[in-house]
Amino acid sequence: MSSKETGADSGIDWGGAPQCAKVVCEPSQLERTIDWKQGLAIAIGVPLLILPSIGYFASYLWSFAIIVWGLSVFQGFMQNLAYGELATTFPNASGLPGFAQNVFKGNGKEKYDKGKLIGGFSAWSYWFAWNPVLAIFAILVGSYLHGLIPALGGYSEYTISLVAGIVIFGALILINSRGLSSGATMGYILAFLSLAPLAVITFSPFASGDFMLSNITGSWLPTDWAWDLHHILILLGIFAMAQWSACAWETAAIYGPEYKKPSSDVPKALFSCGIVCLFTFILVQAAVTGTLGISGILDQPVSPMLPLAQAAMGPIGSYIAIIMLVAAMVLIIQTAYLGSARAMHSLATEGNLPRIFGRINKNGTPVFAMVIIGLFNLALISLGTPTAILAASAIGYVCANGISLFAYVKAKNNPRLAALDRPFKAPTGWKNVALMFGLFNLPLCLIGIVYLNSLEIGWTSTWIGFLVLGLYIPLWYYSQHENHVAQEPQSQAV
């Protein structure tokens, strides 16, 4: 139902557009309002996911972190060729959450369909992968503002981060409640404010001569590095965290139901964002390492971009960097916010979450889901450690990617699914590539991230990750009961 048909006024409509029967509220369909350039503008925040990991990766891998970023973006291209095909096979599916749910769902005759549970769990894992990005970057915003604005020195970082979260989350809900095209406009503005200065800061050491190749070639790996099981597991954990950043441009496909021409818009948005990521992840880590050296990065593990900004822009570099970084963080928060809200909407639409999470307003925005996600992340901010939240979130991401890649393999092998029209096709035999990367995610990267978590921050992050993922089971069973109750009046009428 369009906004004209509802006759609702502008602003946030908490219950707009859903069709309600008795006490059960049906989810509503998203509207096709954007093209591939607008989808790219929203997803373009993904390259900025490198910011919290520059120093962390260098502390473990030294200069080899550059290679890991390059390999991870390459992994993204391999995986996203499969996702691009799935996006055109299921044009109404919301990216990874929708693909797995469409492939694994059963015939609808069983009340508790195990295949549907698997697809829903993949979507829930994806939701958990993107959701904590809001808290991570709100904490980083608070940290940067606390350290560089003297007037805020009297307040704790937690207080500043909490206020920043309230302001940013609230503003994004208001802006995006007007429709996804408004989010795209916001993406254009934030991309200009963040990516342009990031490019200047990244390239300036090469132009000024501050970049020294010997800082990279002379320190490829830590002196105590050995290719034993311990270090291989660490490397797998790093790859799990790296793909959380460097492969995340698949989020361009999550707006599949909102592209005007999904068969052409999805691949264009997807791979345009991938090309930007390829250059960004490699060049940013290389510029920081080559300019500061490993010791310089370790002296600034949270904000290694600040010394580069000061060198490139002089005394005002820190303040310009703050504006850039805050804009960058708001941009990636918006990318994550919209992605996780649509994952929740997809789950509810497919009957894998309570239907209330599928409610949209008159502009086609799942505002209720956005509010719940915002409140959840305000609670996560209290953890205060971005790395711990990221590590827990990465557990969800490897699960989502692994199951989604297995879904691609099933979609190619199942005669009914294989017969579906595919306007965009990955190269012949790509199901074998998808299977290989699916197994790389599950179990290898999952084992690696759990092992790395145990070394770095104990078992808390891992238990939080599995607890949130496990929370899906009771929610799913409740939603199946809800669906069954909703279908009973229809069965009696027949």
TrEMBL record:
<protein>
    <submittedName>
        <fullName>Amino acid permease</fullName>
    </submittedName>
</protein>
<feature type="transmembrane region" description="Helical">
    <location>
        <begin position="229"/>
        <end position="249"/>
    </location>
</feature>
<dbReference type="InterPro" id="IPR050367">
    <property type="entry name" value="APC_superfamily"/>
</dbReference>
<feature type="transmembrane region" description="Helical">
    <location>
        <begin position="389"/>
        <end position="409"/>
    </location>
</feature>
<feature type="transmembrane region" description="Helical">
    <location>
        <begin position="269"/>
        <end position="298"/>
    </location>
</feature>
<feature type="transmembrane region" description="Helical">
    <location>
        <begin position="457"/>
        <end position="478"/>
    </location>
</feature>
<feature type="transmembrane region" description="Helical">
    <location>
        <begin position="318"/>
        <end position="338"/>
    </location>
</feature>
<keyword id="KW-0472">Membrane</keyword>
<dbReference type="GO" id="GO:0022857">
    <property type="term" value="F:transmembrane transporter activity"/>
</dbReference>
<keyword id="KW-1003">Cell membrane</keyword>
<feature type="transmembrane region" description="Helical">
    <location>
        <begin position="158"/>
        <end position="175"/>
    </location>
</feature>
<feature type="transmembrane region" description="Helical">
    <location>
        <begin position="430"/>
        <end position="451"/>
    </location>
</feature>
<dbReference type="Pfam" id="PF13520">
    <property type="entry name" value="AA_permease_2"/>
</dbReference>
<keyword id="KW-1133">Transmembrane helix</keyword>
<keyword id="KW-0812">Transmembrane</keyword>
<feature type="transmembrane region" description="Helical">
    <location>
        <begin position="187"/>
        <end position="209"/>
    </location>
</feature>
<dbReference type="GO" id="GO:0005886">
    <property type="term" value="C:plasma membrane"/>
</dbReference>
<feature type="transmembrane region" description="Helical">
    <location>
        <begin position="365"/>
        <end position="383"/>
    </location>
</feature>
<dbReference type="InterPro" id="IPR002293">
    <property type="entry name" value="AA/rel_permease1"/>
</dbReference>
<feature type="transmembrane region" description="Helical">
    <location>
        <begin position="124"/>
        <end position="146"/>
    </location>
</feature>
